[in-house]
Design goal:
mainly alpha, disordered N terminus, about 280 residues, about 90% helix
């Protein structure tokens, strides 16, 4: 009997693991495949995000560099414009001064009275009996003194010109620094103004959106109030209708009672009529 009894696998073995079902294996394969696809999609998305972030950083750096270059170009143009206006004003003043000097020179050249007086002065200094050697030597001495004085004057003019040139260069440098500071300040103020304009536009758009939302909410509340009013009217009409129905019910009940009373009256009348008939037969 012990030999003929079939043994069930795992019936006496506690470590026995039954074979997996084919359906569960297919489901596990499908889940693993779906998980693999999801992981691949996540990796692709992360790679795409990293690429986009890197491109964004590059574009941000390019934009920063372009903004810096644009600010420098604006600063240079503003500085050159102001210096150009200053130089134009200086040239105008210089041209006006030269024109005034030319007018004075032309006036002096055309002054005949002064020319006659100068000619008479030369004639009065010249010797009466002709030109001798002493007169020539005197003229040469005066000429040498005049040349020496002219040289000294030229040297002084050169020194004055050099000093003026140094002062002018120093003033130009100071003006250039002042103009650069002014341009930087103006450029910064313009940037702040542009930023404020953008913020103002954003706030205006936000306020417009809020106003529209509030207007929608107000319209909704108005509709709600209108609906509530209509409901109140309907409730009132319903109460009136219920009152009318109650009246109709009362009337119907009264009619039913009247009908019952009439039926009872008829029944009583019929009974009274039957009683005398029976007596007559007897």
């Amino acid at each position: 009997a012990a030999v003929g009894t079939p043994m069930t696998p795992g019936a006496s073995d506690p470590d026995f693991v039954p074979p997996p079902d084919a359906v569960s294996l297919v489901q596990e394969d499908i889940e693993e495949g779906a998980r693999g696809d999801l992981e691949k999609q996540v990796r692709d998305r992360d790679a795409n995000i990293s690429s986009l972030e890197r491109i964004r950083l590059e574009k941000h750096q390019e934009l920063t560099a372009l903004q810096k270059e644009l600010d420098e170009e604006r600063l240079r143009q503003m500085k050159e414009s102001i210096l150009h206006r200053i130089e134009v004003e200086r040239l105008k003043r210089q041209t006006k001064a030269v024109e005034e000097r030319l007018e004075a020179l032309e006036k002096d050249m055309q002054d005949k009275d002064a020319i006659h007086e100068y000619a008479n002065l030369i004639k009065g200094v010249a010797p009466k009996g002709g030109v001798d050697s002493q007169y020539v030597m005197k003229l040469q001495s005066q000429l040498a003194k005049a040349v020496k004085k002219m040289d000294a004057t030229a040297h002084q003019m050169a020194q004055v010109e050099q000093s003026c040139e140094e002062v002018v260069n120093s003033l130009k440098k100071e003006i250039s620094e002042i103009v650069e500071d002014r341009c930087r300040t103006e450029l910064e103020l313009r940037k702040q103004l542009e930023l404020l304009e953008e913020q103002k536009a954003e706030m205006q758009a936000e306020y417009d959106d809020r106003i529209r939302e509030n207007q929608k909410e107000l319209d909704r509340l108005k509709e709600k109030v209108s609906v509530e009013t209509s409901v109140a009217d309907l409730e009132k009409e319903l109460e009136d209708t219920e009152a009318k129905l109650e009246q109709l019910n009362n009337i119907h009940e009264m009619q039913e009672r009247t009908i019952e009373e009439l039926k009872e009256t008829l029944e009583n009348g019929n009974g009274e009529e039957e009683t005398p008939a029976e007596g007559g037969d007897a």
